[in-house]
Write a structure and sequence with these properties.
628 residues; 70% helix
């Protein structure tokens, strides 16, 4: 006599429900912290460099500034695919937990910088790199852990919350950096320590593997060519932002050209290697899934637009708008973060709502609408005057935040739902690579466009303005010929640009008090730069709107929501159970003696095999394992 299939008891159902919310809470805290540290230093940089007694704008020191901004994002962009693959091989929770410990350890060492000057900056950059390694281990595996833990009908909501936490951390970091650095620059790193310790211990105690491990070997050649190739390309972008040989930027620097060429060749070699090895680092076959391919392309375009816009808005507020409205340059980093709060608020509201709706309405429509609205906000910003009214500015950045939230959650859900269960770690890493690479590239692209626009008209305007205030012609010409990057970074660091540019020559000491006040006041530089800066803004925001349109087209091309392809293998494989399922219990029909009924082949009526404890999941084979 056949045994009826086992049904899930209320106690087991309660444990499954409790576990999925535990996983969501822990992974949300992890990606929030990781993203927060990617942006918190943007506002805290002035206090950090004052703390280590280093002038980042002095000749030869601008590299420290760029690496404090770009190094963290570069490492995350390079490593997330690798650690995602390691999660598939050796356990996503194991790699994730290790990442929490590494991230917290690096945060402790960052706050105890024992050096000054360039050595102090190198200490910070080095430990930021290790912190980014831990952050990569967290972000690469968090989405995979959630996809395993939640059923399909709740997956969009869970991934939406997770994605909102990641991007919300990026926005909130702008405010947190200003508030914490106003107290003590080390507090920017201290804030991670108690949170990191608590969630590291909690993760080790509560999270457990809910999917089978893929096993296999490390694809060393694939990992090396990918890491070195992508690193070389992103390093070249960093070099390109620095002046070289009398040019405003370093794109004519042979080192930048060689790194870009070498990086692209290595990435091409990586693709060839992945097609030939038996255990590739990434599964190129995933790109056969339309939702995966076009979802990642759309995410890359939005990431480039969002990262560059954030950087440009900070310079706009700190270098021009806030000084024109009476704010001292030293206070502009904090107030820039505060005035950008509507952007954060719009995103935090729209992200969870769009994730919830994507579970019911599908991802394509919401993501496409979000991309189009994102582009419309760029067009609105492009039409603003330099000295705008804050109300309309706040409305436009709120719309931009809402659009980002509308896009991010459904897009992540669509990507993760399109891949087989045993490849969710590497898929999550690939998604994060597209996003982090887009953010890193965006700073180089948008900043290059802005500098190119300023270089055409700023030198003459600056030279003429200085001469009119009594600065000797040869000094005014020398200052006017300096690369615009110095003026922009000075404004971002809360330093009066004119005072900074004239300090080496000592020209200010030979001017009258009235002339000194005019040159170093809050209106001279913003008024001088307004025209050239607005020309650059038009180019930058037009480019952002174009990226948003391309993202919308890619989002449409993803197709309807596909079911995730099944992993080849027996149907009872643990990896085919991404989330808790409601078992369907068949009521056996009464047996009729008069009729001989042939044996049925239904899986649910086949006697289950002997129960064997699985060392990986702690469940029994022969029945659908509960998803913890």
């Amino acid at each position: 006599m056949t045994k009826p299939p086992r049904t899930r008891t209320p106690r087991r159902t309660a444990a499954v429900d409790r576990y999925k919310w535990t996983a969501l809470t822990n992974t949300t805290a992890a990606v929030f912290m990781s993203a927060l540290d990617g942006s918190i230093v943007l506002i805290a940089l002035p206090a950090i460099f004052r703390g280590v007694h280093l002038d980042p704008l002095a000749p030869g020191n601008i590299a420290y500034l760029l690496w404090m901004i770009m190094g963290y994002r570069l490492v995350q962009a390079v490593l997330v695919v690798t650690v995602g693959r390691l999660g598939d091989m050796y356990g996503r929770v194991r790699i994730y937990n290790s990442g929490f410990a590494v991230f917290t350890f690096a945060s402790v060492l960052l706050s105890f910088d024992p050096f000054d000057g360039g050595h102090g900056a190198m200490w910070l950059i080095a430990w930021r790199v290790l912190q980014a390694v831990g952050g990569s281990m967290l972000t690469a595996n968090s989405a995979a852990i959630l996809t395993d833990a939640f059923p399909e009908e709740q997956r969009g909501f869970a991934l939406g919350i997770n994605q909102v936490a990641a991007l919300g951390g990026m926005f909130i970091g702008l405010v947190a950096g200003g508030l914490l650095s106003a107290w003590d620059w080390r507090a920017v790193f201290w804030v991670n320590v108690p949170v990191g310790v608590f969630f590291t211990v909690w993760a080790y105690r509560t999270l457990r593997e809910t999917a089978g491990r893929d096993g296999g070997r490390i694809d060393w050649w694939g990992n090396i060519t990918f890491a070195v190739g992508l690193s070389a390309t992103l390093i070249a972008i960093t070099i390109g932002l620095q002046p070289y040989g009398g040019h405003t930027m370093g794109w004519t620097n042979p080192s930048a050209d060689a790194l870009i060429a070498g990086g692209l060749l290595l990435l091409a070699a990586f693709v060839v290697i992945e097609k030939r090895v038996s255990a590739p680092m990434i599964q190129l076959g995933l790109f056969r899934q339309r939702a995966f391919t076009f979802g990642n392309l759309a995410g890359l375009a939005i990431s480039v637009g969002r990262g560059g816009m954030q950087f440009v808005l900070i310079i706009w507020l700190q270098g021009i708008w806030l000084p024109l409205h009476g704010y001292d340059y030293a206070d502009t980093p904090l107030w820039a973060g505060i005035f950008m709060l509507p952007l954060t608020a719009g995103f935090l509201v729209a992200g969870p709502v769009s994730g919830y709706l994507s579970d019911r309405l599908g991802s394509r429509g919401l993501a496409t609408g979000g991309a189009l609205l994102f582009g419309a906000s760029f067009l609105g910003l492009m039409c603003l005057p330099i000295d705008f009214g804050y109300g309309i500015f706040a409305l436009l950045i709120t719309v931009n935040g809402i659009a980002s939230g509308m896009f991010a959650s459904p897009n992540s859900s669509s990507i993760m739902g399109s891949v087989p269960a045993n490849l969710r770690g590497v898929a999550s890493g690939m998604r994060a690579t597209f996003q982090n690479s887009g953010t890193a590239v965006s700073i180089g692209v948008f900043f290059s466009l802005m500098i190119a626009g300023l270089a055409r008209s700023l030198p003459q305007a600056l030279t003429t303005g200085l001469e009119q205030q009594g600065v000797p012609a040869h000094i005014a010409t020398q200052v006017g010929e300096l690369p615009p990057v110095s003026s922009l970074f000075a404004a971002q660091l809360g330093v009066n640009p004119v005072q900074h540019l004239l300090r080496p020559s000592g020209a200010l000491t030979h001017l009258t008090a009235t002339q000194q006040h005019a040159l170093t006041g809050s209106e001279f530089f913003p008024t001088l730069i307004s025209g050239p800066f607005h020309s650059g803004l038009v180019v930058v925001f037009a480019f952002g709107a174009t990226l948003a349109l391309l993202a919308a087209i890619a989002s449409v091309l993803r197709g309807a929501n596909p079911a995730a392809p099944r992993t080849p293998g027996p149907r009872t494989s643990v990896t085919e159970t991404p989330g808790p399922r409601t078992p369907v219990t068949e009521t056996p029909a009464p047996r009729t003696p008069a009729a001989r009924i042939p044996p049925r082949t239904s899986v649910t009526e086949t006697p289950p095999p002997a129960r064997t404890d699985s060392p990986t999941t702690g469940t029994t084979t022969g029945e659908t394992p509960p998803c913890h």
